[in-house]
Amino acid sequence: MESSGYGLLKDKTGIIFGALNEASIAWSIAEAAYREGARFALSNAPVARRLGSLDILAEKTESPIFWADASSDEELEAAFSQVKEEFGQIDFIVHSIGMGINVRKKRPYDDLNYDWYHKTLDISAVSLHRIVHHAVETGALADGASVLALSYIGAQRVFSEYSEMGDAKALLESIVRALGYRLGKRRIRINSISQSPTRTVAGSGISGFDAMFEFADRIAPLGNADAESCADYAVVLLSDFTRMVTMQNLFHDGGFSTMGISDRIVEDMNDVLGTGTDE
Ligand SMILES: NC(=O)c1ccc[n+]([C@@H]2O[C@H](COP(=O)([O-])OP(=O)(O)OC[C@H]3O[C@@H](n4cnc5c(N)ncnc54)[C@H](O)[C@@H]3O)[C@@H](O)[C@H]2O)c1
Questions:
Q1: Residue 98 alpha carbon to ligand 1 centre in Å
Q2: N or C: which terminus of the chain carries fewer CB neighbours within 10 A?
Q3: Enzyme catalytic residues
Q4: CATH code: domain of residue 188
């Protein structure tokens, strides 16, 4: 990509939730949005103040930070009031938030702690609903805006170690569709990107992540998509070039979702099993 960008988001304003450190997908999206001419606020949970390095990104992209826990109505309402004060009405929202509590604490899917499960669904999926709700209620979201969330193919298929996060992503994608219908009357669109396994804090919290990463990389004809390429796709979805795209879950996975098995996996399996020789 040309480092000067294409001005895809010139004159656009927004808010990006979920940049924690340089590895975060939202971090790359913020850098790409800045490159494309957008002005925006950054947001994360107050606890991320001491866990991450959002200040560095804020300085780099000349962005204010509005801290808000995405499971708190009060904090989100306050954040969108601040956004409105800073930018007036905004043109885009990026939801790049995820947290699997049972996954982190290594509770298996068939023995979930239900309080943690609720929290996982609340933080990882219901938060998208809350964010859109407060953006609309505070009058911070402009007609014709674009809302984007990050998902994973575990919403549709079983990835054994992805556990409760598969349910969270299924709910997230359903919320994208249900809100898409309602927001359409204001020409606001909402989509999710279903991204390849990516080495981030959220990604590495999943046991078996390395296997998921390597498996997908060996299956996908283009290999795994990294956070930078995801960010390039994201800015296109925030731009006017995709103004008629809504309620979609868009795979950004190097072709993984359409594959069955690849030569590379066949060779790897043959190596492990000692099969595949004619003798
Ligand atoms: N990493 C992957 O392999 C992968 C693949 C597909 C989709 N995704 C999705 O991409 C998104 C971003 O994740 P990432 O991989 O960049 O990891 P990340 O850990 O860098 O980002 C997750 C973010 O969620 C924030 N968060 C957690 N709880 C929150 C709360 N209560 N309120 C507000 N923010 C909160 C974290 O502080 C963090 O910034 C998530 O939705 C994730 O599920 C990740």
A1: 4
A2: C
A3: 152, 162
A4: 3.40.50.720
Give the residue numbers spanning the domain of 128.
13-273
Q: How many domains does one find in the chain?
A: 1
Tokens of 16: 């990006």
Question: Which residue is it, tokens 């905004």?
Answer: 90
pLDDT digits (tens, 9 = 90+) for 106-126: 999 999 999 999 999 999 999
278 found inside a domain: no
Residue 20 lies in a domain: yes
Answer whether residue 5 is part of any domain.
no
* pTM exceeding the 0.85 threshold for the entire prediction: yes
The protein residue whose alpha carbon is closest to atom 17 in ligand 1 is 202
**Burial state string for 63-79 with b = 16 or more CB within 10 A and e = fewer than 16:** bbbbbbbbbbeebbbbb
Ligand 1 pocket, Cβ-based, cut-off 6 angstroms:
18-20, 24-26, 44-45, 48, 69-71, 96-99, 123, 150-152, 195, 197-198, 200-203
Q: Residue 8 in contact with residue 37, Cβ under 8 Å?
A: yes
Confidence of residue 154 (pLDDT cuts 50, 70, 90): very high
